[in-house]
Design a protein that fits this description.
- The structure is a single chain.
- The strands form three sheets. Strands 4-5-3-6 form a four-stranded antiparallel β-sheet, covered by helices on one side.
- It is α+β, with helices and mostly antiparallel strands.
Length: 342
C-alpha cells in the first residue's frame, strides 16, 4: 500500500474508534477495502468530503442538522386525484445531493428486482417479465418516499462501510423530517438501496413458489402460471413492516385468467401494449388531424394543451417504445413534418 500520511486535520477519532486497536495503516487499508468492495466513494471524514464537494464543513453540518430551511415545497396534482407534495432542495443542497447521487452511491447496486431509477432499465423491461402470465397481483407501498426513515438511510451509508460520522452527515443531507424528500436527486437511488434487503427476501420467497417479482418504485408486481399469489400479501406486509413501511390496501389488485393485466400502465396480456383507451384516443386524434388539419382539430375538439403537437408526438413515441409498432413511429414522423409547416 502506498505511504499514507495523516495531517492533524484528518486525524478524527470516529474512524479510528470504529476499528478498535488496529494501527492506523491497517485501519485505513481495511476502511478503503470495504468501501471499494461495496463500490462506494472513499470518504475519510467530513473534511475530506468538504474538499471533494466544494462546500465548507460548517455549511455541510448546518444543512445536515436543519435541512428544513433548505427546501421549497409545492403541490402537484396526482393522476389518481388529490395532491402530491414536492420538496425541492435549494440550489446549494441540490448540488451536494447530485454529488452524493452521482459520485458516492452511483455504483452501489440495488437488488435486480428493483427496476426503477436505474440505467439500462426501462418501464417496458419491467413489464415484459410478466408477459402472458395467467395470474397477477399488484401491490403498492403507502406514502413511499416520506415513510422511508432517516435511520434506514443512515443504515444504507453505514452498511456501505462509512464511519458513523460520515453516515450521519450524509443521511442528514439526504433526508427531510425523517423521510426521503420527493424532489431530491438522491431519493430515488436511496429508496432502492433501503429496500435491497426487502427485495432479496421477497424475491427468494417468490422464486421458491415459481412466481415472478419486480418492484418499480412503490409498485410491486407478482405474476405466476398458478393461482398461488394471494397469500403473498401477508408475507409482503410483514417484510415491509420490518422497514417501517405499509401497504396501500386500496391499490391491491388481483387479476386472474382472462382479465386485463398491466404493469405500470403497460398491458402485458400477450405482448407489451398501451392501454386500449390510449390507443383509441391516438387513432382518433390522428384521424381528425388528417381530415381537418391541426388547427381544425384543436378548435373543434376544444383542446387546450400547450405545445399540443409536441405533446402528441411524445405520446406516439412512447407508444412505439412500448409496442414496437411501426405505425406509431410513422405517425410521429408525420406530425413532426406537420410541425415544420405550422
Amino acid at each position: 500500500m502506498p505511504d499514507f500520511r495523516f495531517s492533524q486535520e484528518y486525524v478524527q477519532l470516529d474512524l479510528f474508534n470504529d476499528f478498535g486497536s488496529l494501527d492506523r495503516r491497517e485501519i485505513v487499508a481495511t476502511y478503503v477495502t470495504e468501501l471499494t468492495r461495496n463500490k462506494a466513494l472513499v470518504l475519510f471524514d467530513v473534511s475530506h468530503f468538504s474538499r471533494l464537494v466544494g462546500f465548507s464543513e460548517g455549511l455541510l453540518h448546518a444543512i445536515s442538522a436543519a435541512p428544513f430551511y433548505f427546501y421549497r415545497r409545492f403541490d402537484v396534482p396526482k393522476k389518481s386525484g388529490g395532491l402530491r407534495t414536492i420538496c425541492e432542495p435549494f440550489p446549494t443542497l441540490k448540488l451536494i445531493q447530485r454529488f452524493i447521487a452521482e459520485q458516492v452511491i452511483a455504483n452501489s447496486e440495488p437488488h435486480k428486482a428493483a427496476r426503477a431509477f436505474r440505467q439500462n432499465h426501462s418501464l417496458r423491461g419491467a413489464a415484459v417479465i410478466h408477459k402472458a402470465r395467467p395470474y397477477m397481483l399488484t401491490l403498492d407501498i403507502r406514502d413511499f418516499f416520506p415513510t422511508i426513515s432517516g435511520f434506514s438511510v443512515y443504515r444504507v451509508f453505514f452498511d456501505l462501510g462509512y464511519t458513523a460520522q460520515i453516515a450521519r452527515l450524509l443521511s442528514g443531507l439526504c433526508t427531510l423530517e425523517n423521510g426521503l424528500p420527493q424532489g431530491a436527486p438522491t431519493s430515488p437511488a436511496l429508496s432502492n438501496l433501503v429496500l435491497r434487503r426487502f427485495d432479496e427476501v421477497i424475491f427468494n420467497e417468490c422464486k421458491s413458489r415459481g412466481v415472478f417479482y419486480t418492484r418499480y418504485a412503490d409498485d410491486m408486481t407478482f405474476s405466476s402460471r398458478e393461482d398461488n399469489l394471494a397469500d403473498l400479501i401477508g408475507v409482503v406486509r410483514k417484510e415491509l413492516r420490518t422497514d417501517g413501511l405499509k401497504l396501500n390496501s386500496k391499490k391491491t389488485v388481483m387479476a386472474g385468467k382472462g382479465a386485463r393485466k398491466y404493469v405500470n400502465g403497460v398491458v402485458v396480456n400477450e405482448r407489451p401494449n398501451i392501454l386500449r383507451e390510449k390507443r383509441r384516443n391516438l387513432r382518433k386524434d390522428l384521424y381528425y388531424i388528417k381530415k381537418y388539419g391541426i388547427n381544425g382539430h384543436v378548435r373543434f375538439s376544444n383542446i387546450d394543451i400547450p405545445n399540443y403537437l409536441d405533446h402528441l408526438i411524445g405520446k406516439l413515441t412512447y407508444a412505439h417504445f412500448i409496442t414496437k409498432d411501426q405505425k406509431y413511429k410513422e405517425d410521429a414522423a408525420y406530425l413532426y413534418e406537420l410541425k415544420k409547416l405550422t
